[in-house]
TrEMBL record:
Pfam families: Sod_Fe_C (PF02777), Sod_Fe_N (PF00081). GO terms for cellular component: mitochondrial matrix. Its cofactor is Mn(2+). This is Superoxide dismutase. It comes from Musa acuminata AAA Group (dessert banana).
Length: 245
């Protein structure tokens, strides 16, 4: 199992998710989802390393699922997103408006898949490293205020995740406009920002079948019940505190 790397949580963070090719500007905005450098070239996405072994989340999520999910599914989003960006660059250079518009769907789907999975890996942590430990400090208090209790929030996210038709994501988000927490769902690979520019993802749970089927078959509620055992609330708390500072 070679993917246990020296990377810290920060190494999975934003800048590592993209790498420049050609002569991309080092000053480009490399936030997740930005995609293009500011000048002279194209910044493409790259598959981030996981900060834990594939089997480290067992028994909640099997190593086989994690390996396929990361190496095949996330990699496919990265590859297809980069291909779409290259075609977009060519279409823009040619002034081909039809091609530019036609590429928007592929960019949204594959770019969204890359954004969402890059967050998802950071939302998980092995039990022996603190996975599943309830949130403390300000996020914990805010969950109690906004939802009644952590258990009530979990029930709400599980219910909305189980009820989501087809494939998609269920999110715990910070609404920076209303300054409160909210639960949202997105279809397919739509990233949370498609539900509102003020929404910041604290925790996203992948409810695509590829995230659970090999272990849980068609019983999505069992997957949702068990994933809380490996949720990294410390990461969600850090994002919350940064965004509310
Ligand atoms: Fe996925």
């Amino acid at each position: 199992m070679a993917l246990r790397t020296l990377f810290t949580k920060k190494s999975l963070a934003l800048a590592s998710a993209f790498r420049p090719i050609a002569v991309a500007s080092a000053a480009g905005d490399l936030r997740l989802g930005s995609g293009l450098s500011q000048a002279r070239g194209l910044t493409v996405a790259a598959l981030p390393d996981l900060p834990y072994d594939y089997g480290a989340l067992e028994p909640a999520i099997s190593g086989e699922i994690m390996r396929l999910h990361h190496q095949k599914h996330h990699q496919a989003y990265v590859t297809n997103y980069n291909n779409a960006l290259e075609r977009l660059e060519a279409a823009i250079a040619k002034g081909d408006a039809t091609a530019v518009v036609r590429l928007q769907s592929a960019i949204k789907f594959n770019g969204g898949g890359h954004i969402n999975h890059s967050i998802f890996w950071k939302n998980l942590k092995p039990v022996n490293e603190g996975g599943g430990e309830p949130p403390h400090s300000s996020l914990g208090w805010t969950i109690d205020t906004d939802f009644g209790s952590l258990e009530a929030l979990v029930q709400k996210m599980n219910a909305e995740g189980a009820a989501l038709q087809g494939s998609g994501w269920v999110w715990l988000a910070l609404d920076k406009g209303f300054k409160k927490l909210t639960v949202e769902t997105t279809a397919n690979q739509d990233p949370l920002v498609t539900k509102g520019a003020n929404l910041v993802p604290l925790l996203g749970i992948d409810v695509w079948e590829h995230a659970y089927y090999l272990q849980y078959k068609n019983v999505r509620p069992d997957y949702l019940k068990n994933i809380w055992k490996v949720i990294d609330w410390k990461y969600a708390s850090e994002v919350y505190e940064k965004e509310t500072a």
